[in-house]
Write a structure and sequence with these properties.
The chain is of the alpha/beta class. It has helices spanning about 10-20, 45-50, 65-85, 105-120, 135-140, 160-170, 190-200, 235-240; strands spanning about 1-5, 25-30, 55, 90-95, 125-130, 145-150, 155, 175-180, 180-185, 190, 205-210, 230. The chain has a six-stranded parallel sheet, sandwiched between helices. Strand 1, helix 1 (about 10-20) and strand 2 form a beta-alpha-beta unit. The N and C termini lie far apart (about 40 Å).
Length: about 240
């Protein structure tokens, strides 16, 4: 079937496009480079023509609460309205495990996006996932100098390929509302993952754990608390794919 991917050029989006192609579907990437602007709605109607499902893995370019909420209000609202006009039978949204437990600015915005989808006009499913294996690299990307401080955080990281496969599987079926979340097979502290990544890359960077942030961040608020789908790939296996 023809499936639109909002955010199809991002870290997860590229994996979703690959998985759709591998499983015989026809992916349509919704991005400015393909002539679609989610925040204005430009190009959406033409891009969604003939699509049976939409997978939304888009991200706000800004992480502040007000800016991110504004992005999702515009982008998600436009995507929902255009999906209804196109007769899309199922919209699948990627969200974050613990988004309603830990009070980070971006998480408030993701809660807002979830509310838009769950209260919107299109048949929907929300899949919450834990942090991806790429997360430590993203945190360290802003480091300057010989020492990098990372948040005190307990996570249960998951493979982007496994998240993508689950998103495609959900899109193939009917709307579920909030589906079982997905998480990796082991709980790890962010500081330990960052140190393993630095060692793998052969960097001289010293990684230290910063003080505690919002309630729950350091104690497992971003890990699944009930039943969930467990990925099989470990962080150590992911590191083998990282170029030294």
């Amino acid at each position: 079937m023809k499936v639109a991917v909002a955010g199809g050029t991002g870290v997860v989006g590229r994996r979703v496009v690959e998985e759709l192609t591998r499983t015989g579907h026809d992916p349509v990437v919704l991005s400015r480079s393909s002539g679609v602007d989610l925040t204005t709605g430009a190009g959406l109607d033409a891009a969604l023509d003939g699509c049976e499902a939409v997978i939304d893995v888009s991200n706000s370019p800004e992480w502040g609460r007000a800016e991110a909420e504004r992005f999702f209000t515009e982008a998600t609202g436009n995507l929902l309205d255009a999906s209804v006009r196109a007769g899309v039978r199922h919209l699948v949204l990627l969200s974050i495990v613990g988004v309603d437990e830990v009070d980070l600015d971006y998480y408030f915005a993701k809660r807002h996006q979830e509310a838009l989808v769950s209260g919107g006009p299109a048949p929907w499913t929300v899949l919450r996932a834990t942090q991806f294996f790429e997360f430590p690299s993203q945190v360290l990307a802003g480091a300057t100098g010989p020492v990098a401080q990372v948040p005190a955080m307990l996570s249960q990281p998951v493979s982007t390929a496994e998240v993508a496969a689950r998103l495609v599987e959900l899109a193939e079926g009917g709307p579920q509302g909030f589906s079982l979340p997905i998480a990796g097979p082991e709980r790890l502290r962010l500081v330990d993952m960052a140190r393993q990544l630095v060692a793998r890359r052969g960097d001289d960077l010293r990684v230290e754990e910063a003080g505690e942030g919002p309630d729950g961040l350091a104690t497992g608020g971003l890990t699944p608390q009930g039943e969930y789908t467990e990925g099989k790939v470990t962080f150590a296996e992911y590191l083998e794919s990282v170029r030294p």
